[in-house]
BTAD domain-containing putative transcriptional regulator
Amino acid sequence: MAQTRLQLLGPVQLFHGDDPVPIGGPGVRGLLALLALKPGKVVGLDEIIDALWGHDPPATARTIVHGNVSHLRRILRDLDGPRILTTPPGYRLDVEPDRIDVHRARTLLDRASVAGPEVAAALLAEALALWQGPALGGVPDSLRAPELEDLRKAVHGARVDADLELGRHAELIVELSPIVRADPLAERAAGQLMRALYHAGRRGDALELYRTVSRATLRTLGVEPGAELRWLHERVLNDDLPPLSREGAHQGPLLARESGGSAISQLPAAVPNLAGRAEELAWLDGLVTRAEAGQTTIAVVSGTAGVGKSTLVVWWAHRVASRFPDGVLFASLRGFDPHHPPLEPAELLTQFLLGLGVETAKVPELLHERVALYRSLIAGRRMLVLLDDARTAEQVRPLLPPSARTMTVVTSRSRLDGLAVSNAAKQRVLGTLAPDDAVALIEELAGPASLNHALARLCGYLPLALRIAGARLSAGAQRTAEELVDELGNERTRLAGLQVDGADDSVRAAFDVSFRGLPGEVAETFLQLGAVPGVMAGPHVVAAVAQIPVAEARRRLRALAAHNLIAETERDVFVPHDLVSLYLRELAEQELSDKDRDEVLGSTVRYYQAVADRARRRLGRVADPLDFSHVLADDAIPPLSGFAEAHDWFAAEWPNLLAVLDAAYAAGRHGDAWRLARLAHTYRVACPLLDEWMRMADLGVAAAEAAGDVAGQCWLRLARCEIALTFELPGFGLADAERAAELSAASGDERLRTSVDLHLGRALSRLGEHEAAIERLAEAIANAPDVTLRGQALSSCAQAEKRAGRLPAAIAHQRAGLRIDRELGDDDQVVASLGKLAELSLRAGDHEAAERYVWEAIDLAISREFVAREGTLRLTLGRVLRARGDIDGAREQLALSVRIYERVHPKLVGEVRSELADLQ
């Protein structure tokens, strides 16, 4: 069966088997490329906009992205496998990475690194063949992915090394000569060409090549070539260059030291194998090239506790140590050691000076004198300095070498932004491992097992947690993977399960050290986050909880992000790692009183009530009397100027809304719970998730009953009736509407009573009781207290009249309702009214009007991402086209409707499939 694959290494293209699938222009290609570069990971909407338009996006950028996502989804529905999922705060491409050429190339590169030369050469040739031209062709100019060119160079360089090892010197001379002529500063390629020339018997040409490269390097950079190339030159001069061996392409300087040098090496032992981290290793390798070119190079590798910073850097340093002929200095700065204070710069300098050969008696007493001696000793040397576990930039600065030819790598749980500002340090935040790499880490310790993928997920792909899980599995045969998965599957026991014998050897202990090192006000905010339900936080909710200005809340959250306890996944969206979330919850339960936690929950609920109320009013009409406009000041609410912003807010905050609702109900805040459920109900127009909506409505009804609030029970029962009508559930919600009618009989609330009539009329109409339905809806039209409810009543009455066979009256009522919808700017109702007018016109035989109405509705539904509405409209369009004799067009639209209904209306798929079968 043909598979779908994505090409990024060349013109961005989608293939089904060998057949290209048209996808659209640069914007659509750019969007697909952004998602495909990070398969399985969320790409934020703001990140997408920045990548596609740079610093000058159009006002409609969000709408354009929504439309392009819908366009791609329609294309992918026809293919096997790939899907674009809406995952706050953006989108995620659900696809096997091996179907994307970039990730296929990385996999081949990784496999080649542990294969013999013949197999490696074949694998790397296969990887290079994936490039079909300049990467990311046909996308907007603002979209850049320089790592793809780095990947190509890494693949090419590794393939040349394999060919050198196989003795294919003549072929490589032909291949490499034009590359080096075009870029004589490409020292790796130049070194490879020197080797090929020498072993092909062209020693003089190899020496001339070195002179050419040396002149270019001196002229352009003002420095001599790097150590590797200088070592090669010396070996060619002495006519004793050994063949390249599989152990590594950069062993020349190491051999030179072994034959009489005195290089320093303070590196601790490295792990036998490093899981994943190909991109980070390539980044570090690229910085070595900068250092070899004479540029001052300082790298900061930061990340949350247990993410594997030291493991990565030490493993990498062993691999590249030979490129620093004067040695490697290493020191643990103990910045986050739970038992010792951070080392002072004076102590660290003493350690380095002794390593550099200074006698103990000659180490200066004063700090500034030690700094001066240290800098004078390493000036001009080609060295690597590793500063592990730094706490602050101030702890690091005295240890920074003065030589541009020495590279410094710092690891820290904090980002050390000060080094970027004052010393132009390059920064890299280390994330968790990719799922397959995480499984490989467990298997390294405990061997293969079917549940390793589940274990890796429960460990949050965090290396420390993975190593603990692997160690526990390997500790004894009495522990099975099933038992460990059960233990870690319980959130209450997961952190306890990620601990071995020593109290310090645990995920909780690692996080605790980070927390205890936070400044007071930032630590207070971190604690409060533990009592805020939800999966992410922003400055506005933190401001509401902490009762501080939004700007101050943002500053504190970014301070936490700088300490890598949370991550700012896009602007103002802060997400803790899964295990950090569990730690936070435990911490809040331990260190906050019941009263403090209740106050945090109360503030959180009030915030979401206020913002959800504002957002729903941007989405469309509001029938109930709930009004939270007085709860928060305008500057305490995220900017929600229109429909798109409100839709995006609901989409991003939906998991938080569900979590806050559950927490409010569990805490006995029943009045808060039913109100929040009703406020969030409006979002159903753009998010047709039946299970979640029914759970929310059921909980809302239960909360209103527990609170003894009659109006609340009515409004939540009407919400549940609306869901039953939308999803055509048995009974169409009539029982809820009738119960609401009983409860509201004595109410003087005209809005409530009109809404009850509306829902009763709609449910009765669906059940075939046309006269009773029209009577109820006529009362609603006559008694509607405002134009909003009158428009809804007109539209509902039109449908009842249609079912009763009164088409002229139905069309007249629906047109009157559409006029009100347009006047109010209610896009959901405009789409619904247009779709209903299309159906009515079709029944009346006016096919031209029907097609005009339905296409207008589909365009608006796609731009607003009303997925359920789009499915119904495609069905209507298929029927219109069939009536007009366009059978092929009808088949296409009905097929699209089937694919949408499979996701949002599975119970109704059979009806549409039956219609489609009639057309075959």
